[in-house]
Amino acid sequence: MAGNTSAPGVTVTSRVLALLGAFDEHHRALTLTDLARRAGVPVPTAHRLVAELVAGGALARRPSGEYVVGRRLWDVGLLAPVEIGLRRVAEPFLHDIHAATRATVHLAVRDGSEVLYLERMRGRASVPVVSQIGSTLPMHCTGVGKVLLAHAPDEVQRQVLQSLQRVTRYTVTQPGLLQQQLEGVRRDGVATTSEEMTLGACSVAVPVMRDDEVVAAIGVVVRSLKRDRAGLVAALQVAAQGIGRSLG
């Protein structure tokens, strides 16, 4: 029995990772019982391991008794190569977009079949935004996600197209229509959404390229694209080219 646990093949490390993996953008605070259930770990074992994680700063316990991700995990996450390189290079360009548009600005990469947000600079306008730094969202209903999906491997595109979920009444869930949109993204270098992820929010995004390879996407979230779509696209493209040159 690996790791001196009660189930064959189950190690202490795998259980710790399962406990940490129980948190996501929809489950940011969990009770011990919920943690154990979502991780598939017995409550007594969860109690012992969670206490060690709290002592080490990986988790924190609120006065209510719920557990949240601790600061130490965030500090460690910032050491990931994708964070150190891409995020640091992109930051001044994202600041320029934010200053020029006053919109919410995103930097994202593909994480399997989802889009992972590396940076978010929130705009001043009261546009609803559900993204968080370090969170993942579906690719088919976000601007940066559509950019990354359009340039993803064929198997990833097939996986996403076979499991399109409706988030709002405007979410594109027809595979044929989404394929047409992805072809447009590859042709024009621009992706847009209109209330597909969140009601009252639209987005436009462009790819960041290094040596002819799409390595990331940057985008903005605004209330409407009817008035200044061309200006937003131009600002994003200038920034994307600058990031790409800096990475190269």
TrEMBL record:
Please provide the record's keywords in A-Z order.
DNA-binding, Transcription, Transcription regulation
Which molecular function GO terms apply here?
DNA binding; DNA-binding transcription factor activity
InterPro entries from the xrefs? Answer: GAF-like_dom_sf, HTH_MetabolicPath_Reg, Tscrpt_reg_IclR_C, Tscrpt_reg_IclR_N, WH-like_DNA-bd_sf, WH_DNA-bd_sf
Q: Which residues form the HTH iclR-type domain?
A: 10-71
Q: Name one GO biological process term.
A: negative regulation of DNA-templated transcription
Q: In this protein, which residues make up the domain named IclR-ED?
A: 72-248
The protein, known as: IclR family transcriptional regulator
Q: Which species does this protein come from?
A: Aeromicrobium endophyticum
